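[Discussion] Sanity-checking designs against the backbone

I'm trying to build intuition for which residues belong where. Below is a structure token string of 304 positions. I'd appreciate it if someone posts a full sequence so I can compare it with mine line by line.
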């Protein structure tokens, strides 16, 4: 009981600091905080599907890029909140369309398929833009960074609560059963197909909105950058380092990688990716439950 009270108090203090951050940070630090929140939201959305089902998706970049494309097309032609919701629903609709055929395969085949679909849609957007004689779109009159920060903070909080609630629900138990043994889960009456597709659709909504907000931050839409597979690889790295089936995991993983990247890009930009790869392999081999899992184990050991 006392541990729960301390945890709730810590969460409340952290949330209060996040709300007050724009008044305490300079422009550069606010940009880093905005980036951190975007990665937390993206990684949490990945965990709601891949972390719970074991289906490792490399397709989140396509939902992220699609949301950014919707924002670039509709900016200043509709209210901001309508475009944000439209961007999220565009990602969810795409996940619904590709979910049933894609989720018929599993393991490395699903990984390769999601990566291939992401690249396929990227080049569709590039072809469409080329047909319109455009290689990118400038966005004028974007909201100020403080407004975007609060929108991203809301997305990060919603994504975290979604992961936390889903992991503790019967739905989450069904998704974990699929991860452990899909055939046995189906034999026991778990609606495997429905749960997988529904989780996949839900996990695609947040990246669509995050992509829409981020293109307002950069004020420029460029398909090669916003549909980059690096986005998907970074999300997976953060989830694994933080702990891929717990709500605190993406927070720890995103904070670790963002702070590390800020330090290394300034001091050792040429070895950043090498260090990141070594860290990923090290966590997979020696800390498979990630930072959050290791901290939970230490706390249980201390109580014992």
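Best answer:
Here's mine. Compare freely.
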């Amino acid at each position: 009981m006392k541990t729960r009270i301390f945890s709730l108090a810590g969460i409340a203090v952290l949330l209060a600091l996040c709300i007050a951050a724009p008044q305490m940070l300079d422009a550069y630090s606010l940009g880093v905080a905005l980036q951190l929140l975007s990665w937390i939201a993206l990684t949490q959305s990945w965990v709601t599907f891949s972390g719970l089902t074991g289906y490792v998706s490399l397709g989140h970049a396509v939902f992220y890029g699609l949301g950014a494309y919707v924002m670039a097309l509709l900016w200043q032609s509709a209210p901001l909140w309508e475009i944000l919701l439209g961007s999220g629903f565009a990602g969810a609709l795409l996940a619904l369309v590709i979910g049933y055929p894609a989720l018929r395969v599993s393991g490395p085949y699903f990984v390769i398929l999601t990566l291939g679909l992401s690249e396929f849609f990227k080049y569709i957007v590039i072809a469409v833009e080329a047909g319109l004689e455009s290689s990118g779109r400038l966005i004028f009159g974007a909201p100020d960074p403080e407004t975007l920060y609060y929108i991203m903070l809301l997305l990060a909080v919603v994504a975290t609560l979604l992961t936390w609630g889903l992991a503790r629900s019967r739905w989450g138990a069904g998704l974990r059963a699929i991860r452990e043994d899909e055939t046995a889960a189906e034999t026991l009456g778990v609606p495997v197909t429905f749960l997988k597709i529904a989780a996949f659709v839900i996990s695609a909504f947040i990246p669509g909105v995050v992509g829409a907000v981020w293109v307002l931050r950069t004020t420029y839409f460029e398909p090669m950058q916003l549909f980059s597979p690096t986005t998907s690889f970074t999300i997976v790295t953060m989830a694994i380092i933080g702990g891929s089936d717990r709500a605190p995991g993406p927070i720890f993983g995103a904070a670790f990688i963002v702070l590390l990247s800020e330090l290394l890009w300034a001091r050792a930009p040429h070895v950043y990716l090498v260090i990141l790869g070594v860290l990923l392999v090290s966590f997979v081999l020696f800390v498979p439950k990630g930072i959050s899992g290791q901290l939970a184990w230490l706390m249980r050991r201390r109580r014992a």
